[in-house]
Amino acid sequence: MYEDKTLVCKDCGQEFTFTTGEQEFYAEKGFQNEPARCRDCRMSRKAANNGRRERVMYDAVCADCGKETKIPFNPTNDRPVYCRECFEARRGQE
Ligand SMILES: [Zn+2]
Ligand SMILES: [Zn+2]
Fold first, then answer.
1. What is the pTM of this model?
2. What is the full DSSP assignment across 47-72?
3. Which ligand is nearest to the CA of 67?
């Protein structure tokens, strides 16, 4: 009744297999939608969403002092990123 399906991940653009086992699992759970992401991206999203467990941290360079820092969100180019000290210092000024 089920066949392996090849889907394209919404996040990384890689093809991945929606296996018969997974399809059965989805049907059992009553999920209407096929998975939009590959296993890797789903896992990293789960990790990112679960703040209490290990957080995915991204490398960034502070826009103020140039120090390397880690931030809990994916840095985008249109927003400056600050290290903890600069962030605190800037917040203190406002
Ligand atoms: Zn992916
Ligand atoms: Zn800084």
1. 0.48
2. HHH-TTSPPP-EEEE-TTT--EEEES
3. 2
Tokens of 72: 């809990």
Closest listed residue to residue 4, CA positions, set 45, 31, 34: 34
pLDDT digits over 25-46, tens only?
A: 999 999 999 999 999 999 888 8
State in Å: Cα 83 to ligand 2 middle.
Answer: 4
Distance 79 CA to ligand 2 centre (A): 14
